[in-house]
Amino acid sequence: MNLSALEKVDLPNGQYLFRRWIMVGLIFFLILCFMPWTQNFRAKGNVTSLGAADRPQSVHATIPGRVEAWYLLEGDTVRRGDTIARLSEVKSDYFDPQLIERTAAMRDAKSNSADGYLAKAAALDRQIATMRQELVLKLEQGRNKLEQSRLYVSTLEADLAQQEAQVAVAAFQEARTDSLYGRGLKSLSDAEAKLLKTREARAKLTALQNKLDQAKTEVEQTELSLATIEPTYQGKIAKAQGDRQSAMTQYYTAVGDVAKLETSETNYRIRRDFGYVTAPQDGVVGKILTPGIGETVKEGEAIVTILPRTFRSAVEMFVEPFNLPLVSIGQEVRFIFDGWPAVVFSGWPGMSYGTFTGSVVAIDNTVDRKGLYRVLVAPSEDGRSWPTALRPGSGAEGVVLLGNVPLWYEGWRQLNAFPPDFYQVDRYQTKSEEGLKVKAPVRTVIK
């Protein structure tokens, strides 16, 4: 405006200072906008054990029973195998104090019975072998007898032929003597003698014919006997074999009963041991869930909890599905545990104090009832050691560290509600012959 009055009027010192502070603040804000910022997101979790066997566990009653005695108190230290409580039976099937001994006696008796059946089967085997040998001998004897009978028939037939000849001769002599007697050349006594001789010859002939018929009948009987020897002995052998099979069936049945009794005896012995509830591992007794003497517990019911004495700490962190793709195996996580003071600058982890470092070791692929995914984080080997006083179940808050971006980019992302940068840092690569190329984004693989 070329007004000399304004040039002669001096501004107050406060306005000069305000303008300088404005300039300094603007320069500081511009510098701050280009400072690096570590992207991150937070998730709540609980302290647990890295090994499943080292987590707090409940000791269950293997059998139903009544609590008869407690041998420890809450807070006591136990070693593996130490007796915690004693239970008594509540089922009538196991009331007998001599149940195991009686079962063993039944098993021994059944075993002896099985041995008896086996011995009977062996005796029948010997009997069958003997009958087979006897069959061979009987057949040989029958054949020999048949042969003798046939020879005897042949002998009789020869004797019969000779006797027939003698009868013919005697008859001829009788006729001639009669003729001579009629002529007076022979006496009556001679004629009678020839008559007697003829009759004797005919009587012998008849006797030989009877013997021959009897011998032929004997041959037929011998043939029939020989034919019936093998079926008779085969029937006896079949009966003995049936008795042997029956004995073997009874033997195998007895063996099965012995096995059942042995199983029952073993089960009774093991069940008797289950009457004493023992500690499954070294630890500290937590809460006794069934404190009263005389109370009845069911099979599989928890009666006491045990906390492990030593365990490797870990954190199970629950991540929202929106942030799950940003988590990968081996990723760094900073933790703030309940009871341990900490000063946290999540965007500048190097300026944080009191945090503890961990790395992701497992990621669940299924969502829980609350719609969150479980991520297991173990202590990092190159970080600060986690407190030894941590106990399972205490709270923890995790800060999952992502990539580094300028502060202005993070502010712009937050204002637009965009997710954190999902691409790798080296998302650009250069080829000498092709120039600058955009590399496709590589997603984190969740196992």
From TrEMBL:
Which regions form coiled coils? Answer: 198-225
Q: Which InterPro entries does the record cross-reference, listed alphabetically?
A: MFP (IPR050739)
Give the UniProt keywords, A-Z.
Coiled coil, Membrane, Transmembrane, Transmembrane helix
The secretion signal range is: none
Membrane-crossing ranges are 21-38
Q: Could you confirm whether the keyword Ion transport appears in this record?
A: no
PANTHER family membership: MEMBRANE FUSION PROTEIN (MFP) FAMILY PROTEIN (PTHR30386:SF27), MEMBRANE FUSION SUBUNIT OF EMRAB-TOLC MULTIDRUG EFFLUX PUMP (PTHR30386)
Quote the protein name from its UniProt record: HlyD family efflux transporter periplasmic adaptor subunit
Q: Which organism is it from?
A: Neolewinella aurantiaca
